[in-house]
């Protein structure tokens, strides 16, 4: 029982615990925007990040940035700039969602899809299909990923 009696629990943390217990083939984070952006999506110049790779140490980098210049390591510019745009989110916003998503990828060895709730892309992800629009987080050393032609086609289309 909780010592404080009542608590606000992050849905992101609940998903992490469920994934740790159930071992799914993929996890889906539903948001109010199409995925993870380079900066808050309401700001000029914001771009959807189609794929984030998770290194064994938990660092993130954008797919295609083999030189690490887009890494989220402390000594470099952040890959994604986060802010708490909605005052009603008391559980950490995108920063905490990304931490939970990285933990799911690392601990549960499954990809994570970040998609907009109420869209066909969310329906696809929840039905076990790779969404056409959104952000995928995956291990950067996952050999099984290379065998997923549907995902490779989606990412090629997004990058084009």
Write the topology of this structure.
Layout: H1 11-22, E1 27-31, E2 51-54, E3 60-62, H2 93-108, E4 112-116, H3 120-126, E5 135-139, H4 149-159
Parallel strand pairs: 1-4, 2-5
Antiparallel strand pairs: 2-3, 4-5
Helix pairs in contact: 1-2
Describe this structure in words.
This protein is of the alpha/beta class and 160 residues long. It has one domain (11-159). Helix content is 29%, strand content 14%. The chain has four helices and five strands. The chain has a five-stranded mixed beta sheet, with helices on both faces. The model is unreliable at 67-78 (pLDDT under 50).
Please give a handful of descriptors for the protein shown:
alpha/beta, 29% helix, 160 residues, 4 helices, five-stranded mixed β-sheet, 14% strand
Please sum up the structure shown.
The chain is of the alpha/beta class. The chain contains four helices and five strands; from the N terminus they run H-E-E-E-H-E-H-E-H.
> What's the count of strands?
5
Q: What count of structural domains?
A: 1
Quaternary state reads single chain
- Provide the β-strand percentage band: 5-15%
Q: Uncertain regions: pLDDT < 50 for 5+ in a row?
A: 67-78
- Largest β-sheet summary: 5 strands, mixed
Taking all residues together, what is the mean pLDDT? 77
């Amino acid at each position: 029982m909780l010592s404080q009696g009542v608590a606000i629990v992050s849905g992101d943390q609940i998903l992490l615990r469920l994934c740790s217990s159930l071992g799914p083939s993929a996890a889906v984070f539903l948001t109010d925007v199409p995925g993870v952006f380079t900066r808050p999506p309401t700001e000029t110049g914001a771009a959807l990040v189609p794929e984030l790779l998770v290194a064994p140490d938990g660092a993130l980098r954008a797919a295609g940035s083999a030189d690490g210049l887009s890494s989220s390591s402390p000594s470099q510019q952040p890959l994604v700039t986060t802010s708490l745009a909605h005052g009603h989110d008391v559980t950490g916003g995108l920063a905490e969602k990304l931490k939970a998503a990285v933990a799911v990828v690392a601990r549960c060895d499954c990809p994570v899809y970040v998609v907009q709730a109420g869209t066909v892309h969310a329906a696809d992800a929840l039905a076990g299909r790779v969404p056409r629009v959104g952000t995928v987080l995956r291990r950067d050393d996952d050999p099984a990923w290379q065998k997923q032609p549907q995902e490779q086609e989606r990412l090629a289309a997004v990058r084009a």
